[in-house]
Large ribosomal subunit protein uL18
Amino acid sequence: MALSKSEKRNRIHLRIRKTISGSAERPRLCVFRSNKEIYAQLIDDLSGKTITSASSRDKDIAAAKTNKSETAKLVGKAIAEKATKSGVEAVVFDRGGYLYHGRIKQLAEGAREGGLKF
């Protein structure tokens, strides 16, 4: 029986997670994309804590009436701003099993414009 789309994405995500992990100095920038929203978290895998997060459901981002791709770029800038406030400059990018294309790519570019290095 063939794998469903979500099962295939989860397998890819587990394959990625075998090689990358976040630390306090260089946390993991984890991305989750649904049909309507996009979420980003900075995670310290050694202590198992989320440092900060941003999503398209945040009030200032949701108030901006933009398309999904532009919203993803705003989320990237927001996570970069929150990261610099918490003292993080460099991250490890975890695309979450999604292709580096479209909204995932826009979020990454927005985070780079905001000052994160990866």
Summary: The chain has a mean pLDDT of 96. The chain has four helices and four strands. The chain has one domain: 9-114.
